[in-house]
Amino acid sequence: MIIGDLPGGLTGSWLAHYRLEGAAVGGGRCYTVVIVAAAASVNYAVRVICHDRDLPRRDASNPDADLQSIEMDDRAVAVESDAFLKRYAVSTDHDQNQVRAWQLFDPALIHWLTEDAPDNFSFELQNGALCGFVSGAVADADALDALCEATALVHTRVLEIGSDPAAAPTPAEAGSREDTVDRALAEHPFETPPRSARAASLHFGLPLVSHTSRQLGAEAFFRTHAEALGLELLKPDEFMAAHIDIAVPGSITQVAHGRLPNTDLDGYLVFTSDSDAGGWSVLVADISRSDNGFAFAGSPAEKRAEKDGLDISSNGSTITVWKPDGSPFSQTERKLNRFLEQACPILQASYTAAKRLS
């Protein structure tokens, strides 16, 4: 992987060879990908994917599907071009505004994708980032340039839509996943934060606890405890759009922002999960590129983190402290409070050191 300025005017972008987990070395499940920030798209794009029809179905699936509180099928998008639809399959998240998706695929982009895009080119737009990719580990310089330039062309169209005032965030539509979750949580308010995610799930799933009730319980647990801590909820895609280069374990499922407990830091409390039912509690503080994000190395804060089973890292623009805590359904008030008690002073000390040694 390399990060930097790429052909096509892509600044601060990623170019990488990516091998899917479980794929044999040298097998057919390797991809060459270009990732570029497109923060403005978070206002109108939940998830829009344009896949070459030769892309294997197992690689075209949504990896976050198992983490959604309410399971809903994606929607196919039809355009008035048989040649385009013969080459590509376009679909969106169930909650995607279809008008915005159709606007993205204007006649000029459809013609270019159909006639001039590199062989096997596909792209995905989600969480404030655009990913263009082709199958295989491309090593030819001209082919790499072509992939970057193809992604740049789509990126230009993505930004054009994002600059439209009509792309401003709108309230959740009735029947959407967000609306369904909000209504379900409103029907079961908690006077005090639940002691565990499991206890919260019982409010949504009696007499049987289902996948949905477990997800709703985990969401209710996070929201009520974040509110009790004085933190403001933030949509995960908004957080990821502003932190495209952050590296945290698992997929981000919940985010809250504000003054972290017993610190003078404005930071983020983040819960993550993965398809294997693992999970992590995460604290994040933003720093500037001029700060020494790695000043914690060898410090008492790093030693304390190691002793408490915490990990600490920096990518130059954030400092992150995290700890594995099992599945999101095993979260408890005691576990969360213990994490905050341990992690907040470590993050504070590391942040202070980064500023002092910058």
Structure description:
- This protein has 358 residues and is of the alpha+beta class.
- 35% of the residues lie in helices and 24% in strands.
- It has an eight-stranded antiparallel beta sheet, with helices on both faces. It has a six-stranded antiparallel beta sheet with strand order 9-10-11-12-14-13.
- Strand 7 and strand 8 form a beta hairpin.
- Helix 7 crosses helix 8 and helix 10 runs antiparallel to helix 11.
- The chain is globular and about 60 Å long.
- It starts with a strand and ends with a helix.
Topology:
Blueprint: E1 2-6, E2 10-19, E3 30-37, E4 47-52, H1 57-60, E5 75-76, H2 82-87, E6 88-92, H3 98-104, H4 107-115, E7 122-126, E8 129-135, H5 141-162, H6 177-186, H7 197-205, H8 211-228, E9 232-234, H9 236-242, E10 251-259, E11 266-273, E12 279-286, H10 300-307, E13 311-314, E14 318-324, H11 333-356
Antiparallel strand pairs: 1-2, 2-3, 3-8, 4-6, 4-7, 5-6, 7-8, 9-10, 10-11, 11-12, 12-14, 13-14
Helix pairs in contact: 7-8, 10-11
